[in-house]
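SAMPLE LOG
Freezer: B-3
Tube label: C17
Construct: single chain, 306 aa
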Amino acid sequence: MRLSGQNRISDELRGAIIALGNFDGFHKGHQVVAQTAIDWAKAESRPAIIATFDPHPVRHFQPDAPPFRLTTLDQRERLFTAAGADAMLVFEFGSELAGTTAEDFVTKLLVERFGAAGIVTGEDFTFGKGRAGNVSVIKQLGAPLGLSTKAVGPVSDADEVISSSRIRDALKAGDCETATELLTRPFAIEGPVIHGDKNGRKLGYPTANIDIDHYLRPKYGIYAVKGRLPDGRLVNGAANLGIRPTFDPPKELLEPYFFDFAEDLYGQIVEVELHHFLRGEAKFDDLDALMAQMAIDCDKARAILT
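STRUCTURE (predicted):
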């Protein structure tokens, strides 16, 4: 269930424990915050809600920032539901929310509008106009109103704190394995399959083209991938992610070719998981050279994915 931060939460979901954060990527650290809220809610027989912000606050304050999203709202909703949340609460971030004081955020939104009984967030979470709010502010303002608060410290692995920034850096370096470890699943780009220039079909490798849209741009190149189809099936493949330098004009796309697959996917929503970076993009002198390299790429991807 998806709730809007603009609306009053209905009676059956009032008194919830809310995990509060951005949760883009919903990585290991985010999962600990969410699980703390879900466990607390279960212990008190309350609903569990995971909140997120969309658009991301950075997009509001830095509209020209390069794309950086790790998940869409639809992906987050599925991940939150799978974690055990009863609903996802979406704060639509714009000038109104950006101008909301920390005090009003706690008293008028968390308490009055949402009827929250408890809040769980990371120790470093900030909110409100000028980022004046933090965990201490929620505790101070919320306690007299019956709002309890728990803070979760940073979650680390052997190297350092797990963060969305580390995941983005790994993906920009083509390090799918590190991203997968930190996310607890492969990074995946989801979108409707669109019509392209039919170059893949002409070469014998028909692709299911997907616009990269607001997602972070991983390192351009060829990847071993898995595609999740609308009916839940997983299919193996190889994909070009980038601008296709052999063809003019350059066009940024994710172009997965699924092995032993011949069904029409146009207009359908497909999620493509990046499992392994095979090589960087390259410009070929002729189509024969490109086709020869594509055959090698597909053989490598098959070997990795089986």
